[in-house]
Write a structure and sequence with these properties.
520 residues, alpha+beta, 5-stranded antiparallel β-sheet, 11 helices, elongated, disordered C terminus, transmembrane, GPR107/GPR108-like, GOST seven transmembrane domain-containing protein, transmembrane helix, GOST_TM
Length: 520
């Protein structure tokens, strides 16, 4: 699998101050380590070989594979349950016509191509480094020492090493044929590890040769790649967790339905989206694990629900930070800006998600991905900056109005967000260390923890919002300040003759009381 790159961008919808902006940029680095892409059926279409020293190679894929649990013989026509293997299907090599015409049609072997399956721990056994040579293919000089055969890739055969070392599969061009077809064969995996597959040749006359076909990689419990396999039960667990939260929220919602405000409906929507998102990802992984390829329809809806949920969750945090439903009845002139930010984030997140999960992994170009991840990362920065700026303003307003109960509520919310920021920064540092220390994927068993953490953190933040803004039997917890805000922001509606009474006003024909002090 090809490495993945991500970066950031900026939009005009947020007006950051310098401290918050630097914090936001730090949090945006979290997008650098998202690792959801994977494939168990690697397809090749006219793939070109790249020169490396005196060899030419094509990267056929890499995955973490667990050892077979069943040691019965593999049947080529059907997979055996509990087997782990790499199967070569319909692999065709095509060399240039000019190269084929130079060969004698009566000659049997006129060009050698090799498929190498290399456990990452044995990568140093490929090439002539143990012979103090930089060559990858055997040269006549090295062949004279009896270490290798001319025209083949050098593999160090150490009798003291594990038998599960690099494996070589050879295919030959016959006569002056332009096409060579690899025999259908299956290589069983007997040890856990990260495996790399390379197709290689050493003959310069084969320059211009292309490869087509596919390889199938399977783990003992299914086709799901090793580093993605734990995400299936995790998604199922998180779906049940959202379901449990939804049931508790529904009971509380119905108990105090008379005191429900608009904000509570938004929280309900986020809970429902989270449950649907995780359920869809579970079924997507389950289907992938059973069939070896990603179901386009389920993957599309999983990506879409994920993008919608991320967008609505961020908007919820933003409007809560602005005091919506508690300090202000509406967002007023900010509504359009909030909606534009939300729509922009959804579109960027949807495009990136579809590119990651529905694109052909062998055509996963870093530059194209960089273009798509750039706006997502920086729109996240805008959300973070705007949320903390709005929280600061809301706390200031509550303190000026001496609304003690609401001030304590927002203080708790601010402390929770601050704690999540500190945890996020620490985790980003771990992600950067993880990627820097493991460029070849040797720690593939732990890779699933990276995306799982962010899903868990989002769930914990949602629980905090549900606890702090749960429907309350106290009629003055939310609506009191809401009414006070309406009167405060609409003084022209209040009858001038009633302004002499600081505790009582008429608003739209109704008697409204403005509570002071601690807001109770």
């Amino acid at each position: 699998m090809k490495p993945r790159l991500e970066s950031r961008n900026m939009v005009k919808c947020c007006l950051p101050n310098s401290k918050l902006y630097h914090l936001a940029l730090a949090l945006c680095l979290s997008s650098l380590c998202d690792t959801r892409v994977g494939a168990s059926i690697h397809e090749y279409k006219d793939g070109a070989f790249i020169r490396r020293y005196n060899s030419y190679f094509f990267h056929g894929g890499s995955e973490g594979l667990y050892a077979s649990k069943n040691h019965d013989d593999i049947q080529e026509d059907k997979p055996v349950k509990g087997k782990s293997f790499i199967r070569f299907e319909s692999i065709i090599f095509r060399r240039p016509k000019e190269s084929a015409e130079r060969k004698n049609e009566m000659q049997q072997k006129t060009g050698l191509l090799e498929a190498l399956i290399v456990p990452i721990k044995d990568r140093d056994k490929i090439g002539g480094s143990y012979l103090n040579s930089t060559a990858i293919c055997c040269t006549p000089e090295l062949a004279n020492s009896g270490s290798c055969k001319v025209g083949e890739v050098i593999i160090h055969d150490d009798p003291n090493s594990s038998p599960d070392g690099p494996k070589r599969l050879q295919t030959f061009f016959e006569g002056n044929n332009e096409v060579a077809e690899m025999v259908l064969q299956t290589v069983e995996i007997t040890h856990d590890g990260m495996y790399y597959l390379y197709f290689m040749f050493c003959d310069p006359e084969l320059l211009g040769t292309t490869i087509s076909g596919r390889t199938v990689w399977r783990n003992p419990d299914g086709y799901l790649p090793g580093k993605m396999a734990p995400l299936m039960p995790f998604s199922g667990f998180m779906s049940l967790a959202y379901l449990g939260l939804g049931l508790v929220w529904f009971l509380w919602f119905t108990r105090y339905w008379k005191d429900v405000i608009q904000l509570h409906f938004h929280i309900t929507a986020v809970i429902g989206l989270g449950m649907s998102e995780m359920a869809l990802w579970y079924f997507e992984y389950a289907n992938f694990n059973a069939n070896g390829s990603r179901p386009a329809a389920i993957t599309f809806w999983a990506v879409t629900f994920s993008a919608v949920k991320k967008t609505v969750s961020r908007l919820l945090l933003l409007v809560v930070s602005m005091g919506y439903g508690v300090v202000r009845p509406t967002l007023g002139a900010l509504t359009l800006k909030v909606l534009l930010l939300g729509v922009g984030y959804f579109m960027a997140s949807e495009a990136l998600g579809l590119f990651e999960n529905l694109g052909n992994i062998n055509d996963f170009y870093g530059k194209a991905r960089l273009i798509l991840v750039l706006p997502v990362a920086v729109l996240d920065a805008c959300f973070i900056v705007w949320i903390f700026s709005a929280l600061s303003q809301t706390l200031e307003k509550l303190q000026v109005r001496r609304s003690g109960a609401k001030f304590v509520l927002y203080q708790k919310f601010t402390n929770s967000l601050a704690a999540s920021v500190l945890v996020s920064i620490a985790w980003i540092g771990y992600e950067l260390y993880f990627n820097a220390a493991d460029p070849l994927g040797e720690l593939w068993r732990r890779a699933w923890i990276i995306p799982a953490f962010w899903a868990l953190l989002a769930y914990m933040l949602l629980i905090v919002v549900c606890v702090l803004w749960a429907p309350s039997p106290n009629p003055t917890r939310y609506p009191t300040l809401l009414v006070s805000t309406i009167v405060t922001h609409a003084p022209e509606i209040v009858d001038q003759r009633e302004k002499n009474n600081p505790m009582k006003h008429t608003f739209l024909g109704l008697q409204v009381f403005i509570f002071r002090g601690d807001g109770r």
